[in-house]
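Exam revision sheet. Question 4 asks you to relate a sequence to its structure. Input first:
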Amino acid sequence: MPILILLAVVVLLPLVWFIVQYNSLVSLRNYIAESWSNVDTELKRRYDLIPNLVAAVKGYAAHERAVLERVVELRNRCAANHGPVPDQARDDGELVNALKQMFVVVENYPQLKADQNFRQLQTELINTENRIQAARRFYNGNVRDYCNKCESFPSNLVAGMFSFAPQEFFSVPPSVAEVPNADFGAA
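Answer key, structure tokens:
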């Protein structure tokens, strides 16, 4: 009887460990999918706000047409991009840079900055940006945990056996962190 128990322990313990590792990898992969859908929802919210913001600026800044058209073009490209995370992050970075340029243009129009509708749209966009950052941090935290699990021994053995694919972080290009130049020709 003790030999049978010992044999059961020797066989069952690795099997239980294997099942726990597999299930934790599946859970982490699902957390990544869920957190990406949160990022995607917030990005869509931003894309829905942008046309209203551009319309508000257009009335005041008609001769700044190129900047506004670029924002609309990038917004449409971002909204249509459902590809890999790095591609979406690249497009999102370009859109954020274009929005920064648009807000630099807005600085030339004090009457626009005082407009209640514009301020409300700007506040909504700022709130949305904060929500995107929070969702992106949550997504990247899940990716980090998943990558750690996939790359750490001995769970990497289970990950390799079942082809758990590596996941990409949602990172923004360094240019997004740069402050736009607000030079209005003043000497």
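Marking note for examiners. The chain has one domain: 12-176.
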